[in-house]
Write a structure and sequence with these properties.
4-stranded antiparallel sheet, 7-stranded antiparallel sheet, alpha+beta, 5 helices
């Protein structure tokens, strides 16, 4: 199983994301990563193999400032354990995404996206999702609509946390077949695979149902 944590707040979120990942370690994983939007158009990302403690060490050397971000622990399915396959995945410095679940039709989607000019940097099924959302953003759709349109092409299970690097005030979540919960704070919101990840910051939760986008 994989773990997702995301946050949009009025304070720096990297420490919140890191603690959320630490609390999800029980789910099992082989790599971890975090991406935080420092300013519109400026995304910083760190990905590592191994334990969350290794990610913590990298973040000590390369802090990720910002009030909007997503983080992830990955258990390899499509693609070997490697930094290039770790989440978050980014498309053309516009869209960043974390994903739990399996996209069953990733091969035909990958072939179509490559034919359309997308370059792949991983062997994951997740990367087809971030390219699909990017295409909708590039077509002029706002982030929530872009995610909604992209997910209509997916077959399989997913929990998603998605950021448009040009939109610093929005974090979009979506789920189908994989659990995802929203944590409600004071002037801030969080997402996670499990409420346990968010207990240090809130005790108010909204449980997304099948097909929900928030």
């Amino acid at each position: 199983m994989c773990g997702i944590v995301g946050a949009i707040a009025q304070r720096p979120v990297s420490a919140i994301l890191l603690e959320g990942l630490r609390r999800l370690e029980y789910r099992g994983y082989d790599s971890a990563g975090m991406a935080v939007l420092e300013a519109p158009g400026k995304l910083n990302r760190v990905r590592t193999l191994g334990k969350v403690a290794r990610l913590k060490e990298e973040l000590a050397a390369t802090p990720l400032p910002g009030t909007l971000g997503v983080a992830h622990t990955r258990w390899a399915t499509h693609g070997e354990p490697a930094v290039r396959n770790a989440h978050p995945h980014v498309c053309r410095n516009r869209c960043v995404l974390v994903h739990n679940g399996i996209i069953e039709n990733h091969e035909p989607l990958r072939q179509a996206q490559q034919a359309a000019g997308h370059a792949f940097t991983s062997e994951t099924d997740t990367e087809v999702v971030v390219h699909a959302v990017y295409d909708e953003l590039a077509a002029g759709y706002a982030l929530a609509d872009a995610v909604r349109r992209a997910t209509t092409r997916l077959v399989g299970a997913y929990a998603l946390g998605v950021i448009d690097i040009q939109d610093p005030d929005r974090l979009v979540a979506a789920r189908q077949g994989s659990p995802l919960v929203i944590g409600v704070g004071f002037g801030e919101h969080f997402i996670a695979s499990d409420v346990f990840a968010l207990l240090p910051v809130t005790h108010r939760f909204i449980f997304l149902e099948e097909g929900d986008i928030a």
